[in-house]
Design brief:
single chain, alpha+beta, GIY-YIG endonuclease, Nucleotidyltransferase, domain 5, 5 domains, eight-stranded mixed beta sheet, 22 helices, 19 strands
Length: 604
């Protein structure tokens, strides 16, 4: 059954929280916060409201929504920021560009690190702290760190540029020890950076004490302007240091687990906290007997869930004690190769976070139970149907392969991955076929499978080929050559290019067209085909641009590459004037005129 938006709108609570909009492919396309989820989410679906072009467009793509309740709007705001960074929804690009949630970045990868404000996190080996809700407080804190610890503010590449320029004003006013001149050793400067990192990790007491002493000393010496400056810095540090339930100051990794149950079902809610930030959540529905105790349900869930998850944090926070705590801790510690603690918080922000998880579990249990059952039937249940049809004990991960070419042009291959009935897009792979000339799908498939399967360590439970006997035999041939055994089936299509059945063990198996298993096979086959066609289309577009630009006199490979990098499409190059073309790196006015004349000479 489809997600009924009108019915789900009626169930929305009048509580603060965060809502997530999904499209028809189940991708998160928007994350927002609300003081009242009931009022805010309904507004998107009211035709009388003036939403703006962007929101109007977004609403047309909404297939379903979900939400997380919080205790306050502030918590919803911080959680919204964390989820946006984690999922990068298509229609939330304005939030980060609006510079609403800054980070503090420490460039520890440099010989003489700097402390600066950053708007985005990058994989550059720097340390990031945040996000913070007050940009002004962040700037004041960075300024404070520069003053207290003598951290440089310049962007010079050190020690490469040491001694090449005179020291800046900060050295002369005693706010920087001039590492640019070599006046401070790398080790001594590193000690200052360590103190700054300690401060950013939440060790404020020493700094606050020092500021208070300086403020008092300035006041006693009648230096009231300095005293006011220290007081303002104290206030800024207090804003940064404020603890919030959703974002911890201890940079911890933990899972927060709570549940709610009735006579037939239980819902377990997990909040995933990584480096002190709540980055996401998930919930699981368990079918139980009325006499099952909550402690037993929780223990059973922990064992089932952490037997299959690849990452185990150092701490699990649960809502009540369980009978098998010690043995489960020992088991988890062995899996992690580090001590894992299972704790039941009794007070403070940890206890409140567990309570928040419990509230969300209760909300799911009472309002979304039927939808969860339908979703499980559509995903995990469909996997079970396929496994039963093929006579396999269990299927968790499926990989499907397809080939795409048009008259032998740029043959490409695609691999899509489904886990527990859902697409796992991070594991998708594209292949440019290199060793096959012309339109030979079998040879192309063989090359793709050799390249993929030869580098495997963990193989899927099932490989699905787009096609029948021929494609399946190619996969079996490749696996026999490299010594791999994985079940392989073919997704067979009818004369109208629609999914017809499954080819397995030299037999085409009939499959109920109204079953969830059949629908999942169809989705997998369509997705593999879509992914291959999309890749092929992008290559054709680039090849067409290359071929046309090749014909322009005086434009060599370097300038062709610069033009393609500077303009999105061939049409953009065609529409550009001489001045715009000349602005591209590597171009000059003469080359720009040649490009312009090539496209416009017939019109003059």
């Amino acid at each position: 059954m489809a997600f009924d938006i009108e019915e789900e709108l009626k169930k929305l609570p009048a509580k603060p929280g965060v809502y997530l909009m999904h499209d028809e492919k189940d991708a998160i396309i928007y994350v927002g916060k609300a003081i009242s989820l009931k009022n805010r989410v309904r507004q998107y679906f009211q035709s009388s409201r003036n939403k703006g072009v962007k929101i109007e467009q977004m609403v047309t793509h909404i297939a379903r929504f979900e939400y997380i309740i919080t205790d306050s709007e502030l918590e919803a705001l911080v959680l919204e920021c964390n989820l946006i960074k984690e999922h990068r929804p298509k229609y939330n690009t304005m939030l980060m560009d609006d510079k609403a949630y800054p980070f503090i970045k420490v460039t520890v990868q440099e010989a003489y690190p700097r402390v600066m404000l950053a708007r985005q996190m990058h994989k550059d080996r720097a340390k990031y702290f945040g996000p913070y809700t007050s940009a002004g407080a962040v700037k004041d804190t960075i300024d404070l760190i520069h003053k207290l610890y003598g951290i440089r503010t310049c962007n010079k590449v050190l020690p490469k540029m040491q001694g090449k320029e005179r020291p800046c004003l900060n050295y002369h006013i005693h706010q920087c020890p001039a590492p640019c001149q070599g006046y401070i050793s790398k080790e001594e400067y590193g000690e200052s950076v360590k103190k700054a990192l300690s401060f950013l990790n939440g060790n404020y007491s020493l700094i606050l004490k020092e500021l208070e002493e300086k403020m008092k000393a300035a006041s006693e010496n009648l230096e009231f302007e300095k005293a006011i400056e220290y007081r303002e810095l104290l206030n800024s540090v207090s804003k940064i240091a404020q603890k919030q339930k959703i974002t911890s100051s201890h940079m911890e990794d933990k899972d927060v687990i709570a549940m709610a149950s009735d006579q037939e079902d239980a819902v377990v809610q997990i909040f995933f906290v990584r480096e002190g930030r709540l980055i996401g959540r998930d919930h699981f529905c368990l079918h139980i007997a009325g006499e099952d105790r909550q402690e037993e349900i929780m223990a059973a869930f922990l064992k089932q869930f952490y037997a299959g998850t690849p990452y185990i944090p150092r701490e699990l926070m649960i809502q009540f004690e369980i009978g098998e705590k010690e043995i489960i801790e020992e088991w988890l510690s062995k899996r992690r190769a580090q001590k894992v603690h299972i704790r039941v918080p009794r007070k403070g922000e940890k206890e409140k976070l567990v309570e928040l998880a419990m509230k969300n579990a209760q909300m799911v249990l009472t309002q979304d139970k039927e939808r969860i059952r339908r979703e499980e039937g559509r995903t995990i249940g469909a996997m079970k149907e396929i496994a039963k049809l093929l006579g396999l004990p269990e299927i968790t991960r499926v990989e499907a392969y397809d080939i795409s070419n048009i008259s032998g042009f740029q043959t490409v291959g695609s691999m899509v991955v489904y886990e527990k009935g859902r697409p796992k897009r991070s594991d998708y792979r594209k292949f440019r076929i290199k060793g096959v000339r012309g339109a030979d799908d079998y040879a192309s498939m063989e090359e793709m499978l050799i390249r993929r399967l030869s580098h495997y360590e963990n193989y899927p439970d099932l490989i699905m080929m787009d096609g029948g006997k021929g494609q399946v035999n190619i996969a079996l041939k490749v696996m026999a050559a490299i010594g791999v055994q994985v079940p392989v089936c073919g997704m067979v299509k009818d004369d109208r290019h629609r999914t017809r059945g499954i080819y397995f063990n030299n037999v085409e198996l009939p499959i109920d067209r109204d079953s969830e298993g059949f629908r999942l096979v169809t989705r997998i086959q369509d997705e593999a085909h879509r992914f291959a066609i999309e890749f092929h289309r992008s290559l054709r577009s680039k090849e067409q641009v290359h071929s046309i630009l090749d014909d322009i006199p005086g434009i060599g490979p370097a300038r062709r590459k610069a033009l393609m990098k500077g303009f999105r499409t061939l049409e953009d190059i065609r529409q550009a004037d001489v001045e715009e073309l000349a602005e591209i790196p590597g171009m000059n006015s003469r080359a720009a005129r040649q490009v312009f004349d090539f496209f416009h000479v017939d019109k003059q």
